[in-house]
Amino acid sequence: MLDLISALSRKQKSYVFLAVDLTLVPLALLFTLIMQPLPQSALLTLSGLLPVLPYVLTIMALAELRLGLPMVQLNAYERHAVGLTALVALLTATTLALLTELFGPGLSPGTYVVFATSLLLFMMAIRALLHQVVLMVYRRASPRCRVLIYGAGTTGTQLAQALKSHDGIDPVAFVDDNSSLQGMTLVGLQVFAPGRIQELVKTRQINRVLLAMPSQSQPKQAQVIVRLQRMGLEVQALPSFAQLIGEEALVDKLTLVPPQRFLGREARDLPLNAASSSYADRVVLISGAGGSIGSELCRQVLRCRPTRLVLFELNELALYTIHQELESLAREAGVEILPVLGSVTDNRQMRRVLEAHNVQVVLHAAAYKHVPLVEANPLAGLANNVFGTQNLAQAALQAGVERFILISSDKAVRPTNVMGASKRMAELLLQDMASRSPRTVFTMVRFGNVLGSSGSVVPLFQDQISRGGPVTVTDPRVKRYFMTISEAVQLVLQAGAEAQGGEVFVLDMGEPVSILQMARQVIESAGYSLRDAENPDGEIAIEIIGLRPGEKMEEELTLTNELITTRHPKIFCTRETVLSEIEVATFMRGLRTAVASGDNHAANLVLQRWVEGYGSQDTNRKSS
User: Fold this and answer.
1) 3-state SS, residue 40
2) Which one-letter DSSP state was computed for residue 446?
3) 428, 464 in Cβ contact below 8 A?
4) What whole-number distance in Å separates Cα of residue 508 and Cα of residue 265?
5) pLDDT of residue 247
């Protein structure tokens, strides 16, 4: 049946509608005659009208074609189309009245009124019936998503109306916080209280909840979203009407609430518990405080109630944003919060800040981390990530800081890019300082990609989708480790509390995730279909662009694959080769000379000489 419907062209379908309408004329006339008190039977009276029927049908057909009524699609048959149908019915009844008065047999005026009304009702009813039949055929032929609309206001009712003609989505019901709307039926859907959502999900087989209350504040929407996600529901949110202005259909404007399922596993909540004592009642400095990791470090350290929290950041806007966010929270917690604008490459400022504020714990998250940018600007990346770490670490040593925790990366393991090599050099530098530090505990925590951080893959995919695609993937075989920002920071703080000095901590990231599979998930979660060889009519394509300079097919977490358990089940320690004090001084001297002279080649030679795997892997990658 679906194949037959799909095979018909728009013109052929219009001829079907015309033929159905013409068939309804004698049926409506017979129905009218049956309803009227006549001197003879309805069939005999109808047989007397047969000579004029061809002319009536001809006039009706010409009128329908002129008005374009057969071309109106079933899912677009609304007020305007009903008006056209009424006009056709009236014209047909008038034609019948004129012809029967001229050529007989004449009927009472009331008969023509009943005929016009009957014909109008028959034509409307047959279209409603055909619409339901076609919908049933489509529903049986392909699985449909059953959705619950949260919000029964203007936006929700318009969304429900739009979805009723959608090929793959069935609106099932409304839920609304407004008690005056609960129990009502709007656009054919009943309105329920939010407390009945779980019951509706089970009894009506709901697949998704559509949030249709854009006028509500963001915090209010966030609360609703969190509540729905805790029920295990997938949630999509409708933007405000300001964002809806355009030519795209309403249903195409749905934007996905970022789901945790991109992680490929359940996100973990890892409370600090006893580890928070390492940060409580202390002065804590966080470098890179306005970044993705740095800002989450600020939030979680603040919960530990330090005496003072120093936010150190190079980017003015980022520092302003995180300071504004935390200021009132810090006041309530009785924590002094100090925003400091500066660069870790300024060693005099670093010494001054640490000494002036009596800093006891340093969390070093300031770094240039975007691989392609650092690859294009290697000297700037090395200066910030290596010399900046050295400046801050030396200042911490001189100021008698208790703990110094470096945020490192899995890209530091046998790196094929300058960013990863710079992080590895920072690790080697800290391991050397740890071996010679009488008081300060230097340690580092190494982990993979963080979902939702600036420049990470999921926001990139979502931005590409918002612009109509394609979604770009470097290679179909690429895999990466992922964590949520909250997970990563919780484990960083746990590891920093356990550190004795010189350890390289590695976090349990779970299994690596296929970037290609993640791209598919992001596309589907945004409500779009993937366009590929199997589905050439899909909406968003995935484009394979090849590995960028410095990228690896898969990242590693250790150089030796040897992981030593710690007291925390999600934190491991790894034993790796360290350099002597003389070797560290040698590579730092060579690196400073290369950066000072602006010599990229010389800097690259230093990396190849001292960073394990850097030269060989880069050569192998290029040759492959």
Assistant:
1) coil
2) E
3) no
4) 12
5) 43
- Are 77 and 127 in contact by the 8 Å Cβ rule? The answer is yes
Lowest mean pLDDT among 250-259, 406-415, 520-529: 250-259
CA 556/CA 618 separation, integer angstroms = 15
Report CA-CA distances (Å) from 441 to 119, 294, 432.
90, 20, 12
Q: Is 87 exposed, middle or buried (0-12, 13-18, 19+ CB in 10 A)?
A: middle
Q: What is the token pair recorded at 222? A: 């966030």
- Per DSSP bridges, beta strands 471-473 and 530-531 are unpaired
What is the per-residue pLDDT across 315-359, written as a single tens digit (0 to 9) for each?
A: 999 999 999 999 999 999 999 999 999 999 999 999 999 999 999
Which residue type does 153 have?
G
Specify whether the CB–CB gap between 495 and 488 falls below 8 A: no
Beta strand 403-409 with 361-364: parallel, antiparallel or unpaired?
parallel
What amino acid positions are annotated as catalytic residues?
411
- What is the C-alpha separation between 556 and 227, in angstroms, rounded? 37
Instruction: Please enumerate in sequence order all residues whose Cβ is within 8 A of that of 201, keeping only pairs 6 or more positions apart, or say none.
Output: 148, 231, 233
Alpha helix segments (H runs only) across 530-624 = 581-596, 600-610, 614-623
Question: What count of residues does the chain have?
Answer: 624
Edge to edge, the sheet with strand 283-287 lists: 336-341, 308-313, 283-287, 361-364, 403-409, 441-447, 504-507, 571-574, 564-565
Count H helices, E strands: the chain?
23, 23
Tokens representing residue 353 in the block? 């800040």
Pairing outcome for strands 235-237 and 208-211: parallel
The residue assigned the tokens 């074609």 is: 65
pLDDT in tens, 132-149: 787 777 666 666 788 999
What's the helix, strand, coil split of the chain in %, to 5?
A: 55, 15, 30
Closest CA to 305 of 332, 340, 265: 332
- What separation in angstroms does the CA of 588 have from each of 371, 387, 585? 22, 8, 5
